[in-house]
Every structure is written in C-alpha cells, then in structure tokens.
Amino acid sequence: MAAATVRRSPYKDFLQPALQRRFATASLGVLAVTYIQALFLANWSSLFWSWFPLSATGFRAIALFFCGILIIILRISQYHPGLRTSDSGISTFFRYAPRLETAETIVTYTLSAVIFSFIYIWSLSEDSGLEFITYFTADRARLNEKPLFLISHLVLLGLYQGFLHLFCDVDRLSLGVAKPQNGEKKAEEGDAAIQMRRLKEQLPAILVRTVNISLIGLILSTIIYPLTVRSAVWKTSLVFLRPIYNLPRSNMLPPTAPFAFWFLVRTFLVSLLLTFSWAAANTAFSLFLVKHPLKNGKPLTSDSKDPNGSLLNGLKNKKLSIKCFAMWELAFIARDFADRRKAIYEDIDRKDGPMWSQVYQICLDTLKTLETSIDAYTAPPPPPPTAADVKAEQQKVRTTEPPRNEEIFQPIPQHKGLRNQVEKAVHQVALAPGQTSQLSPAAKKAVESAKHQLLKIQKEATGSDDPQGLFQDFALRALHSPFGWPFRHQYRRRLAHAVLGSPYGEPSLYVNAACALAGLTVHSLREDRYGNVQRDVATLIRALTGVTKKLEGFQAGLATHWTDVEAERTCPEVEEVLAALKDGLARTIEGFGPYARELRLSLTDMRLAREAAGVEEAEQEMEEVGRGR
Question: What are the TM regions of this chain, as residue ranges (predicted)?
C-alpha cells in the first residue's frame, strides 16, 4: 500500500532509460557493421594496421558510423507504434506527404549518402581512377566525371531509399503481447533471445533486399543522371574547382557518359555497402526497441517507490507509445508476477479509488474505444444545411432601406445590327435553357450521329447500353493494374481504419488490455483477499460480450468496396484483437461460470457470453471428436 507522502515517479522515468539502453544496443550493431565495411576499404599493405581500431581503419569506421547513426536518430525522432490507418493508399499519401517528417526522412538519407560517398572516395588510393582531377600531361588538368557520377548515384539512391522508407512505414514499431501460456514457459516476441534469432533469420532477406535496392537504384541512376542532373553537376563542380586547379574555361560535357562496365560494377558494390548499413540500422532499431518491458526479469516499474502509481501514470498517459508499453507491462504482471498482482488487489487507499478499480476502468475504456471507433466510422454524415437555414443566417436586421435597383444614368440607345441580334439570341438561350434548340438541322444531325457512334462503341466494349458502363469498365481495368493500387479501398485497410481508429492503430494495445483484464480477474479467485474484483465481474462479462459481438458482427457485415478488385476479406490486425477478446471472455467464463448466480448473471447473460466467446462451439467439437473415437 502506497503512503501518501511517497512521490509517484512518472512512467516515462522508467521507460526512457530502458529505451536508451536499447538505442545503445542498436547503435553498437551499426558500429560493428561499419567497422566491417571499413575493413573492406582498408589498404592491406600492413597486416596489423589494416584492422587495428586505432589506425586509419578505426577512424574510417567512426566516419562511416556517422552515416548509420543518422538513420538511428531519424528513427528515434519519428518512431510510432501502430499502423497508419486509412481507407486507401492515396488517402495515406495526402495525409502524410505535406508533413515536415517526410522532408526530414528524405534529407536524412540524402545527407547520409553524401557523407558516405566522400568517405569512400577519400579512402581510395591515387591510382583508383576516382580522383576528382586527372592530368593528361604535366599541366593539363581535367575534371574527372566518374566521382561526380558516383556521388550523384548515391544521392539518388538516398532519395529512392527515403521514399521506400516512407512507403513501407519503416518507422512503425510492432509491439509484442503477453498472451496466456497455459503453464508453459515459451519464448515469445520481445524476448532478447528471440530478437537475436530473428535478426539472424532476417539476414538473408536483408541481403536480398539490399541487392534489389542497389540494382534498381543503379538502373534508375543510369537513366536519370544523363537526362537531368549531369549538366548541372558538371558545371557546378567546375565553378568550385576552377579557383583551385587550372581547368579549361569551357563547360562542355565529355562526349560520353562514364558508364564503363567495370565502373558500374564498382558503383554497384559501393551501393551495396551503403544500402546494407541503412538496412542494418533500421532492422536493429526495429528489433531491439520492442523488447519486453522488463528489467532484470522484473517489470520496469519495480524499482519505483510507488510501482502501482508509476504504472497508473503510464496507463493514463495520452501518448500512444507510453500507453502501449505500460499496457504491455500490465499484461505481463497479470500473467507472470503474483506479488505485483497482489499489490494491485490490496492497494485500496488511493486518491482516485482502489488500484484495481482504476486499472479495470482504464482497460475497459480502452476496449470500448473499439465500439466508439466503429460507431464513428458508420455514422452517417451530417445533413447539409437547407436553403431556408442558409437564408436565415444570411438575413440580417437592416437599419436602413436596401439600395434601389434603378438606372443611375440615362440608357444609351441600342443600334440594331447583326452583332446585337446574335448577342440577343445567345442571351435568350442562356436565360431560357428549357426552350427548343437553336442548332441548325445539319448540326443536330452531326450530334445525333456522334451519340450513336459512342453508344455503339460502348456496347461493343461492355455489352451494355448503360451510359456509365464504359466508364466503370475503364475504371476497373485501371484498378487491376499496378497503378490502380493506391486507389483501391481494400477490405483490410477499411476494417483496420474503422476498428483501430486513426491516424495510428496499435492492435497490441487492445490485445494486452484484454489479456490483462482476464488475467487479473481469473487470478483474483485465489489472490484477492478483499474480494474487490468479484464486484466487477458481471459488468466485465457483459462489456466483453458486447464488444466482441459488435466487432465480430461489423467484421462480417462490412461490405467489399467496388474498388477492391482483389476482394480479399482478411485483416490480421483485427482478427488478433477479436481472438484476444474471445480468449479473455472464455477464461473469465471458465473461472466464474460456477458462481454466475451469486454474481447476478442471468442465464441469458451466460448464453450470450458463451456464444460470443465461442465456448459452445469448442465444446461441441470436443464432443464430436470424443464420439468419433
């Protein structure tokens, strides 16, 4: 029980040090990769100094490490839990493209590429062929285009990687869940051993992805460089180098582009080094940052003077990342830590109510946001204001008479002529659109012929006389193409947007909330000395039943949009949440089912709860299996 004088430390005071340790681990991984790259670039004339960390190789590794640490810094500033929720790809583009974070991502990758390119060029020997100035004779200096192309290629590769980073939403962190293990100690997502194993398993995929990105980037550079940036890069380089070297005054480009085969192979290998360092930084950050919210095998808040208060602070935090980690820790406590569970049950003298009551309300409100999101998504749009309402708003109380609509000057006499007659006819057509057509018989015949030909083409293409059939046919063909993907309103996107909310939806928040509620409720049968939990069990079962039924019904009833040409009705994120709700409800029914009458749960309540949890279906399947044996 927490004393009133104890200062409650915020949850972020325990989360941030843990995240900083994970940042450091990811940075060490990047440093190891850059040191290996520095070994590849080393001059192996001396066997000792070629690998010794305090030699040129070590300083080169530190310089290359700066290229990777830029990506780590970018991830720290922009990481977020949850997927980006929207109905279509084009909606996501218009929502996130104008943001400052988009420009920050592209600039970071471009800057990293520029730094890497200069470090690589400066690491080469004088006879590498990549020096900026070459001498054909004693004093005839010429600008070498090969290093210019290499730098331009790596910059374009940085732009390409930046767009891929945004498109794939690399900044998302996939947080784990603490599901019940039924007495078995299994390794799960977030465990340090599992993360290292996943890193080893992902190495082949990282290499393949690195090769693909480098190859595509090289192809794009060989197309874009001579068409767009070659002239500008050449002239700009001459402007900066003429004051230093005796270069020709002419800005004429070399007759051929520097696309020799072996030079392109070398450029491809350099691209591999840079792209692999980016991939290593992103992978290490994404894996190590989402480790369990534990420290030395205990919850993060165990070191707090008021562990329950610090945990409550995290659960009430409005920042999604902090709340998700706090809910994850609560789910671990509900599953694995009996002493912390007892502390929650016995903490009854808090200012805002007993600890259990606050935890129960927070988790239940979190799950009920699923219903709120569905209601907001399915709510009809507000009706537009009527003409009478608009007119009433526009009318104002006049203190003077309205201005007169009379001629101020004497009208000028109109002269009759051909021009005036034409203007009069056009004026009558514009003001009286319902009158008969003024077209000549020949013009009418041409219009009817064109209309007939258009209907004939439409019938041949679609087999229908529907005026909109031709447009729909063209639209569906475009949607089936790769260019139509951004405009598809896919079932998975729409369901995740409707259920998880926007702009981000994190399934683990709801899964951990359901697991924590069910775990604390079931364990209270043996560990709750004061019996505070049992007073909320009936309300909990009814609430979980309502949320589960509504979510399941909405999932089954959401119609496929006409632009969803693939019509794939799966959504793993929502299915995971629904499975957690059913599992939590089933565990609660199993634990408190024998006490339903004492808890004032009617037979109807229990029947609806079993139907929502799928308990009866599972029992019937077990009976059928038993009969088959």
Answer: 21-42, 48-74, 106-125, 206-227, 259-290
Considering its fold, how many domains does the chain have in total? Answer: 2
Say if residue 28 is in the same domain as residue 172. Answer: yes
Burial (CB count <10 Å: 0-12, 13-18, 19+), residue 621: exposed
Same domain membership, residue 308 and residue 231: no
Residue with tokens 């089936």: 480
Q: What whole-number distance in Å separates Cα of residue 107 and Cα of residue 292?
A: 32
CA distance 509 to 447: 62
Asked whether residue 250 falls in the same domain as residue 227, the answer is yes
In a domain, 163, yes or no: yes
Q: Is residue 481 part of a domain?
A: no
Cβ proximity of 313 and 329 under 8 Å: no
Report CA torsion sign: 294, 299, 305, 308: positive
With b for 16 or more beta-carbon neighbours within 10 A and e for fewer, the 581-597 pattern comes to bbbbbbbbbebbeeebe
Q: Which two tokens stand for residue 426?
A: 């056009």
Residues 116 and 69 in one domain: yes
* Among the listed residues 500, 515, 460, 468, the one whose alpha carbon sits nearest the alpha carbon of residue 329: 515
Distance CA 434, CA 353 (A): 73
Q: How far apart are CA 538 and CA 595, in angstroms?
A: 10
418: helix, coil or strand? helix
User: Which pLDDT belongs to residue 402?
Assistant: 66
Distance CA 67, CA 30 (A): 10
Cβ 513 vs Cβ 554: under 8 Å:
no
pLDDT along the chain (629 residues), means of 10: 58 91 90 88 72 80 91 93 90 90 95 94 83 77 89 95 94 89 60 74 89 94 91 90 83 84 92 93 90 90 91 93 94 92 91 91 95 88 65 60 63 53 50 52 67 63 55 78 87 93 92 94 91 91 94 92 88 94 94 90 92 70 43
Read off φ and ψ for residue 467, nearest 5 degrees: -60, -30
Tell me: do 329 and 352 sit in the same domain: yes
The continuous run of DSSP H or E covering 339 comes out as helix 338-346
Measure Cα distances from 508 to 421, 501, 589, 597 in Å: 75, 14, 23, 34
Q: Is 19 exposed, middle or buried (0-12, 13-18, 19+ CB in 10 A)?
A: middle
CA distance 161 to 106: 8
Q: How far apart are CA 270 and CA 288, in angstroms?
A: 27
Residue 450, domain member (yes or no): no
Q: Please tell me whether residues 191 and 339 are part of one structural domain.
A: no
Domain that holds residue 499: 294-378+489-628
301 and 367 together in one domain = yes
- What CA–CA distance (Å, rounded) separates 182 from 180? 6
Query: Cβ distance 506 to 176 under 8 Å?
Result: no
Residues 6+ apart with CB under 8 A from 586: 613, 614, 615
The string over 6-18, giving b where at least 16 C-beta atoms fall within 10 Å of a residue's C-beta and e elsewhere, is: eebbebbebbeeb
Residues 262 and 351 in one domain: no
**369 near 501, Cβ under 8 Å?**
yes
In a domain, 277, yes or no: yes
